[in-house]
């Protein structure tokens, strides 16, 4: 008789990462969103598509813009250099040697008017707002955390936020603005149960030894964030695994707007349509529809309709109605997905103007979202995180 092997527990590991506000890609996102907010402060109906690149001691801010008054366009363009330098200072950069000098770096501003061909599709003759681009957007929510977000990305964000707090408060004043985190969870039967590994790489002042840095980071950053009860028996911490990390920011690596879209969303736990958020006004469904998809997914889980929910929306440039709307609850729902889809469709207007009105998006609220994620935020009053 052959030996019968008892069933084993189904488990897997899943990892998410985050980056600090001083990471070069996040600097680019923050600059683009600071420019966006400046336009919205002057004209809530501005059309903005702003991209930023940073490399060593150079920042290039470019894009296409439309305002109802030409004076508003010129005012923001003329103040762009001041705004860029302030973002660099806010992130903690002070010198060229360690990242970028906000007072002496070169800043190039290249602002153009919005293409009429795009404008005619968005601001339609019938008065209905068309989608600012084609594309597909995803929203996700789950019951793994109080924020209704996947656990790995929540803890990854907490680590880099704690790094920034320790640096800014003077607790660890020798930390630099540039940092990355990574958290690996063990999932059992689909639920997160233990943390297997934590990685934190942080910029620091010259002369700080690796042994001291690792001890201080473990004590003041990792230990306050990662509860003992969540640590697996094989729990590992890897702090600055490559050793010294003095040169960071744009001097250490170039930065581009939109290169951290998985950090911005769900840490890889859900699909992403590919479109970035930062630097785009709400007529761009890359941003507004992704926010709406998160809002809808969160309603599904918060209302008890499912433990997990994925929402997809898709649009065509110049058209108002989405070409598709899908809900998947992965078998965790209390009713069929088609029933949930129908209920949400009746309750919420998924056209671009309907989304903008429902979430009150024509406001300068975007700069704070450009670091530490756009979803699951408890420190910001974000309309797409409200449960109705």
UniProtKB/TrEMBL annotation:
Database matches in Gene3D superfamilies: 3.30.300.10
Domain S-adenosylmethionine synthetase N-terminal: 12-115
MF (Gene Ontology): methionine adenosyltransferase activity
Catalytic reaction annotation: L-methionine + ATP + H2O = S-adenosyl-L-methionine + phosphate + diphosphate
Pfam families reported in the protein's UniProt record: S-AdoMet_synt_C, S-AdoMet_synt_M, S-AdoMet_synt_N
Annotated SUPFAM superfamilies: S-adenosylmethionine synthetase
Compartment(s): Cytoplasm
Transmembrane segments: none
Cofactor binding mode and count: Binds 1 potassium ion per subunit. Binds 2 divalent ions per subunit.
Sites where the protein binds ATP: 23, 178-180, 253, 259-260, 276, 280
Predominant location: cytoplasm
Record-annotated S-adenosylmethionine synthetase C-terminal domain positions: 248-385
CDD domains (alphabetical): S-AdoMet_synt
Record keywords, A-Z: ATP-binding, Cytoplasm, Magnesium, Metal-binding, Nucleotide-binding, One-carbon metabolism, Potassium, Transferase
Chain sites annotated for binding K(+): 51
Pathway: Amino-acid biosynthesis; S-adenosyl-L-methionine biosynthesis; S-adenosyl-L-methionine from L-methionine: step 1/1
Region listing for Flexible loop, in residue ranges: 114-124
Ranges of residues in domain S-adenosylmethionine synthetase central: 129-245
EC number: 2.5.1.6
Cofactor: K(+); Mg(2+)
Entries under PANTHER family matching the protein: S-ADENOSYLMETHIONINE SYNTHETASE
Subunit structure: Homotetramer; dimer of dimers.
Family named by the database record: Belongs to the AdoMet synthase family.
Protein name per the record: S-adenosylmethionine synthase
Biological source species: Desulfomicrobium macestii
Lineage: Bacteria, Pseudomonadati, Thermodesulfobacteriota, Desulfovibrionia, Desulfovibrionales
């Amino acid at each position: 008789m052959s030996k019968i092997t008892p069933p084993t527990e189904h488990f897997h590991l899943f990892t998410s990462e985050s980056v600090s506000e001083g990471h070069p890609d996040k600097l680019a996102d923050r600059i683009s969103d600071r420019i966006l907010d400046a336009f919205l402060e002057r004209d809530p109906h501005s059309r903005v598509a702003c991209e930023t690149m940073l490399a060593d001691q150079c920042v290039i801010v470019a894009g296409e813009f439309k305002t109802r008054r030409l004076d508003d366009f010129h005012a923001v363009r003329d103040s762009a250099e001041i705004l860029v330098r302030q973002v660099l200072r806010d992130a903690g950069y002070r010198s060229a040697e360690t990242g970028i000098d906000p007072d002496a770096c070169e800043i190039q501003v290249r602002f153009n008017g919005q293409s009429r061909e795009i404008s005619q599709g968005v601001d339609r003759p019938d008065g209905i707002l068309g989608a600012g681009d084609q594309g597909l957007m995803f929203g996700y929510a789950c019951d793994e955390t109080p924020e209704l977000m996947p656990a790995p990305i929540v803890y990854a964000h907490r680590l880099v936020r704690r790094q920034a707090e320790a640096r800014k408060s003077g607790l660890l004043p020798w930390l630099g603005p540039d940092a990355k985190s990574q958290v690996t969870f063990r999932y059992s039967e689909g639920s997160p149960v233990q943390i297997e590994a934590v990685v934190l790489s942080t910029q620091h002042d010259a002369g700080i030894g690796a042994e001291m840095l690792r001890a201080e980071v473990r004590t003041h950053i990792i230990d306050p964030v990662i509860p003992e009860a969540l640590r697996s028996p094989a729990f590992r911490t890897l702090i600055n695994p490559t050793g010294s990390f003095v040169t960071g920011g744009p001097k250490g690596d170039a930065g581009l707007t939109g290169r951290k879209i998985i950090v911005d969303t769900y840490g890889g736990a859900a699909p992403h349509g590919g479109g970035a958020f930062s630097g785009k006004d709400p007529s761009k469904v890359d941003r507004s529809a992704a926010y709406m998809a998160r809002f809808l997914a969160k309603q599904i889980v918060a209302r008890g309709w499912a433990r997990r929910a994925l929402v997809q929306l898709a649009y065509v440039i110049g058209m108002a109605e989405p070409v598709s709307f899908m809900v998947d609850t992965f078998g965790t729902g209390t009713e069929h997905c088609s029933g949930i889809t129908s209920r949400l469709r009746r309750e919420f207007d998924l056209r671009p103007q309907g989304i903008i009105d429902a979430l009150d998006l024509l406001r300068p609220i975007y700069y704070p979202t450009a670091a530490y994620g756009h979803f699951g935020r408890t420190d910001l009053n974000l309309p797409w995180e409200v449960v109705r």
